[in-house]
Amino acid sequence: MQLLHERKLIHVFPNLSIALRIYLSIPVANCESGRSFSKLLLIKNRLRSNILDRKHNLPTMMSIESDLLHDLSFEQTISDIAKAKARKMQF
């Protein structure tokens, strides 16, 4: 760009400076959007794997704590959940 201005070639090739500015800005724009996009994918993948880990750990925990599950009263648990939901305000 400076070379065009120093040699006063800007008037000979008026669109060349515009083309050079566009050309020089394209790699920077693509690089930035690509980085942010890949970071977003990394975050989503990590969240998905955490959710899947929790789902896979649930049967394991139920097997380990099977003695507690046998003593658990499902009717009492259901009524406790229903009471907790009934206390929420309806909008």
TrEMBL record:
Annotated HAT C-terminal dimerisation domain residues: 12-68
Stretches of the chain forming a coiled coil according to its record: none
Gene Ontology MF terms in the entry: protein dimerization activity
InterPro entries, A to Z: HATC_C_dom
Superkingdom to which the source organism belongs: Eukaryota
Name used for this protein in its record: HAT C-terminal dimerisation domain-containing protein
